[in-house]
Structure formats: structure tokens, C-alpha cells
Amino acid sequence: IHSAKVKEIKDNPAAYVLLGYNDTTNRSFVEMEATIEVVTDQKVIDWLWETQDKSFFSSKEDPELCVLKVTPQSVKLMNDKSLDTPIKIDL
């Protein structure tokens, strides 16, 4: 697992994940503050593997394949026109 992104995550596992964000629209989206862990457990990879993953990896035994485990610390509903401020939930 020798990608620049994996190295970046290992060096700094703190992240923000945006769900439903599109910079061309003004719609609501979810912002998640989280930590990310690189998982190489073959049982986890086997459990998550789907046929279409062959578009990116030769097989589920590919040594460059990993899973990114995202553990949220807080979640915010952002950019909702009916709200004065974002709704934040600390987990």
C-alpha cells in the first residue's frame, strides 16, 4: 500500500468527509469530522469486495488493496437554507 494518500492518512489520520457536496449547486450536505485508519485485514477486504472492484484491482488479494475505516467524531448538516446555523452532532 504505497500510495501518497495512504501515506498522508498514516501521517495524519484526522479528516473531514463531505457527503452529498457539489460545488456547482447550493444544496445541503453533510460534513463529517473523523479519523481514518488504513485496514489491511484480509477478512475485512473479503467481506467488502464486490465484482466491480476488479475495475481498480486485479483481485481481492492485490497487495496494494486496503480498506479505509472512517470513525466519525462529529457530523454537521451544512448549507440548509431553513437553518441559521449548521446542526452539529458530537459522537
UniProtKB/TrEMBL annotation:
Q: Which Pfam families match?
A: Pyrid_ox_like
Protein name, UniProt field: General stress protein
Q: Where is the General stress protein FMN-binding split barrel domain?
A: 3-76
Organism of origin is Staphylococcus aureus
* Record-linked PANTHER family: PROTEIN BLI-3
List, alphabetically, the Gene3D superfamilies matched: Electron Transport, Fmn-binding Protein, Chain A (2.30.110.10)
The family database entries (InterPro entries) matched by this protein are listed as: Split_barrel_FMN-bd, Stress-Dev_Protein, YdaG_split_barrel_FMN-bd
Cross-referenced SUPFAM superfamilies:
FMN-binding split barrel
